[in-house]
Amino acid sequence: MKISVQAVVLSGGAGTRLWPFSREAYPKQFLPLVGDKSLFQETIYRVISMGAQEGQLELLSPLVVCNEMHRFIAAEQLRQMGLDRSAILLEPIGKNTAPAVTLAALYALEDECDPVLVVLPSDHHVENVAEFQARMSKAVELAAKGDIVTFGIVAQKPETGFGYIRRGADIEQGVFVLDGFTEKPDAKTAADYLASGRYFWNSGIFIMRAGIWLDQISRCQPAIFDACKAALSASKRDGDFIRVDKDAFAQCPSDSIDYAVMEKLNTAAEEVPRGVVLALDAGWSDLGSWPALSEVKPADDSGNVAIGDVFLKDTRNSLLYSQNRFLAAVGIEDVVVIETTDAVLVAHKDRAQDVKSITEYLKKANRSEHVFHAKVHRPWGDYESIDNGSRYQVKRLTIKPGATLSLQMHHHRAEHWIVVKGTAQVTRGEDTFLLTENESTYIPLGIRHRLENPGTIPLEIIEVQSGSYLGEDDIVRFEDRYHRLES
User: Fold this and answer.
1) Quick check: do 3-285 and 375-479 share a fold?
2) For the whole model, what pTM was predicted?
3) For the chain, which residues make up each domain, given as ranges?
4) Fold of the domain spanning 375-479
5) pLDDT tens per residue across span 87-141
6) What are 264-285's pLDDT values in tens digits?
7) What is the pLDDT of residue 54?
8) Which residues are CB-contacts of 141 (< 8 A; sequence separation ≥ 6)?
């Protein structure tokens, strides 16, 4: 009998320590930091491709749990993988991992199936996918019999940036009773952990049947179970998305999988599922900092990782990453230099964990560089700011074939549109007309308007905005294909 397996991908992180690549509106899990696919796509692929090797598994469509801001990015990346029928659960408020998994388990049981859930953070990298899948097959086998399983990453060094898992008695080779979790240690404690041989890095990956998780969360944290059940019962389908009820979910306590359930398994007096930890040595990285990224990229003889248009002289053990411009480094060591269109980061590798302080500064200064890249993605395509001043802004818009912007108007700005590639269908007031390359039109302030791409190639527009206020929140929508409630 085949075991039904469902990947549950938790995609709520902001990845602040990988700024300026990772930003709130487009965080690291959606970026192709290691290969051609994004980390989010690679995470899903590692599970759904198990079916090619394991005839005993029935791979179900993945479940994604993410927030409102990232919903269109997740949907588009699933579509690129041919998984556009996958469910995307939208958390109205971040409540940590235990409520997220509870929502997923409740949703999974609605189909009268009790699959094995493979719960994965969306932003990790695994070098040896075959080894990962072999260990995952073992974990699924144990979970199908009733265990709740987690992966313990075989520690390579005394890392202070990770939580740890303590193993108990041997069950079989590489499989142990789960004895407990510990928070990020100081350097001496981390060294002691490594020397003892009893500690693993905490992977954040969990495998268990949906029904067993719900039994345990209702036993250990009934308030989480009740709030999630009420929130999902009152949810609404919105296009590709399941919108969890905000008021009900707001009553849910915030807790992690570790604390809510896992630590209580092998210490309970009553009979409960067994907590199990599987050792995993497959080139895992959480890519939680720039030095971590440099460790998974090929380096030159001087220990440098150089990506993009980069020149190096007398430089050692450094990471230099250029997206747009020529980047030169002379006589530096143990430094990270990251160049993007609108920001440059320079940091010593030993201080890379402090990069998140930059995003905190930007937030307090009411700037936007911690939220958006210069190119901002939308469900219809993207726009990129080219130039701006006190009363004007110039953007390049790219609209996907068949896509359409909302029917909208602005209170404070007028717009000029110039077609540089493709064909545009324009609605302006009561008029609808076509524009082709090198043609333009003017949208006065206060006039309803819409832009569509009726063609089969991307439509590129130069948009010149002028007015007293040019913020993205100066949009009044009358119709919108993408069910957006805000800009």
Assistant:
1) no
2) 0.90
3) 3-285, 290-360, 375-479
4) Jelly Rolls (2.60.120)
5) 999 999 999 999 999 999 999 998 778 999 999 999 999 999 999 999 999 999 9
6) 887 655 667 899 999 999 999 9
7) 55
8) 3
The 3-class SS string of the chain reads CCEEEEEEEEECCCCHHHCCCCECCECHHHCCCCCCCCHHHHHHHHHHHHHHCCCCEEECCCEEEEEHHHHHHHHHHHHHCCCCCCEEEEECCCCCHHHHHHHHHHHHHCCCCCCEEEEEECCCEECCHHHHHHHHHHHHHHHHCCCEEEEEECCCCCCCCCCEEEEEEEEECCEEEEEEEECCCCHHHHHHHHHHCCEEEEEEEEEEEHHHHHHHHHHHCHHHHHHHHHHHHCCEEECCEEECCHHHHHCCCCCCHHHHCHHHCCCCCCCCCCEEEEEECCCEECCCCHHHHHHCCCCCCCCCEEECCEEEECCECCEEEECCCCEEEECCECEEEEECCCCEEEEEHHHHHHHHHHHHHHHHCCCCCCCCCCEEEECCEEEEEEEECCCEEEEEEEECCCCECCEEECCCEEEEEEEEECCEEEEECCEEEEECCCCEEEECCCCCEEEECCCCCCEEEEEEEEECCCCCCCCEEEECCCCCCCC
Q: Which option is the CATH number for 3-285: 3.90.550.10, 1.10.246.10, 3.40.190.10, 3.20.20.30?
A: 3.90.550.10
In this predicted structure, the answer to whether residue 487 has a pLDDT above a threshold of 50 is no
Residue 297 reports pLDDT greater than 70: yes
Q: Are 79 and 92 in contact (CB under 8 A)?
A: no
Residue-wise pLDDT tens digits, 4-44:
999 999 998 878 899 999 999 999 999 999 989 999 999 99
Q: What is the mean pLDDT of the chain?
A: 92
